[in-house]
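Typical record is below.
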Amino acid sequence: MFRTSDIVLIAVMVSAAALTYKTKREAENQLAAVQKIQASIRYEEDTIDLLKADWSLLTQPARLQKLAEIYKSQLGLEPLNARQIGGLDDVPVKPVNIEDLSSQRLGGMADNSGKGPSGGKDPVVTGSTVQ
């Protein structure tokens, strides 16, 4: 009735159909993920635009001037006089504190105190200086 080649061809066709279905399903899932990300990006862009609009409304000079006048007693704001601006000479100089580190023995490779294993001499001979 059925030959071996017919059964093999039917199996190949079924596996090709399954592979096609699987590929189509993965592509649809990827498309859904891309659309979800694009929707999220659009939402974030709209949020940014809304925040920029709010910021521009909140920082209008006329609004800030009204708020400064309303809360003048609490803020203690006054106009700036030209004589209030100082130069670099008016700024006090920060004192410089330099610690003397030469008397401290840190030990290790840089210690020449003579207490090390090589008697304070560098055990590495490079040939560049007389030891």
